[in-house]
Write a structure and sequence with these properties.
352 residues, alpha/beta, Quinone Oxidoreductase, Chain A, domain 1, Rossmann fold, 2 domains, 6-stranded parallel β-sheet, 11 helices, 27% helix
Length: 352
């Protein structure tokens, strides 16, 4: 049975040009038998959204406008497809924004984030979640417990990146880690590393506001990379040993090049940030230390873990939020996120 709400008008915040949105009336989604209709209530602004908004993604996705952004989303179920048995109208849910094929070797091995045919929200030609109503496959939708807010539900997405990075790193109790980049993903990686038991967490960033936030979230040490030599400071803090694990979360060629100098003997480098240009890298440092380099591409099998970590109080992800805007002010929200990176770590858009 398919249940429906009546008298519903869908709207989308459509990007029509660089740094320009238009609020448009759009058709209601046709919810399939294995899908849910979801009234979107919270959408986080991701770094990839900002790249689109600034026009930096058009070299990869030319001729993609008009387009709808947003892939960090949570909402309320308003319609249930006839084959869906585990959800009902009124359920509060978060969506995992990547839908894999479920049939390839990567999906069958459990590493579905590597599926070559994954359909990911807000990745052209697939539109994002900055709409009042969307449809979504039920098998990639997660019911939120009563003690989680809609914003926390949306933030399960960036937190999943941090959790996947922590899992890839092998961080455990007693390990010392360095996180190069104190933005949203860096802070989510901090939260995950702390939850996984890291005893010392050094966060490096150009902005004191980000470093102060990192300390509030559990970092033990910080380095201002704009006024201090990052490598020298980390070596000083670790008595010349370096760290067990380095997370590159800034997506910068500069920090990527620093990783082999910071990692300790037998340590691990985890590349989390999205770096487009080629990077000069000292493999001599790597092999002398017998260190490893591991990469992170999105995440897999992390949403249930993220949900339980937040619901149990183990991770307080809502503290990374810097600003919240209503849906009608999405333009202002994106302008704030893009133009005030010093103070705006994470902006969220909400729908009533």
């Amino acid at each position: 049975m398919i249940e429906r709400w009546s008298n519903m008008q869908n709207q989308a915040m459509v990007m029509t040009d660089v740094r320009k949105f238009e609020l448009c009336n759009v058709s209601m989604p046709e919810v399939g038998t294995d899908e849910l209709g979801i009234a979107v209530k919270s959408v986080g602004i991701c770094g990839s959204d900002m790249h689109f908004y600034e026009g930096k993604a058009f070299s990869i996705f030319p001729n993609s406008l008009p387009f709808v952004l947003g892939h960090e989303a949570a909402g309320v179920v308003y319609q249930v497809g006839e084959n869906v048995k585990d959800f009902q109208v009124g359920d509060r849910v978060a969506i995992e924004p990547g839908v894999p094929c479920g049939k390839c070797a990567f999906c069958e091995s459990g590493r579905y984030n590597l599926c070559p045919d994954v359909v990911f929200l807000a990745t052209p030609p697939v539109e994002g979640a900055l709409k009042r109503y969307i449809k979504y496959p039920a098998f990639k939708t997660y019911r939120l417990p009563d003690n989680l807010s809609m914003t926390e539900g949306a933030l399960l997405e960036p937190l999943s990146v941090g959790i996947h990075a922590a899992q890839r790193s092998g961080v455990t109790i007693g390990k010392t880690v360095a996180i190069l980049g104190g933005g949203c993903i860096g802070l989510c990686t901090l939260l995950a590393a702390k939850a996984w038991g890291a005893s010392r967490i050094i966060v490096c960033d150009l902005f004191d506001s980000h470093l102060n936030k990192a300390l509030a979230l559990g970092a033990t040490d910080t380095v201002n990379s704009g006024t201090q030599n990052t490598v020298e400071q980390i070596m000083k803090l670790t008595g010349g040993a370096g760290v067990d694990i380095v997370f590159e979360t800034a997506g910068s060629p500069v920090t990527a090049a620093q990783t082999s100098h910071i990692v300790g003997r037998g340590g691990t480098i985890v590349m989390v940030g999205n770096i487009m240009p080629d990077v000069p890298f000292s493999f001599r440092n790597l092999y002398k230390k017998e260190a490893e380099v591991r990469a992170v591409f999105r995440y897999c099998n992390t949403y249930p873990i993220a949900l339980q970590a937040v619901a149990s109080g183990r991770i307080d992800v809502k503290r990374i939020v810097s600003a919240s805007y209503p849906f009608e002010q999405a333009q202002q929200a994106f302008d704030h996120a893009v133009d005030d990176k010093v103070n705006c770590v994470k902006a969220v858009i909400t729908m009533e």
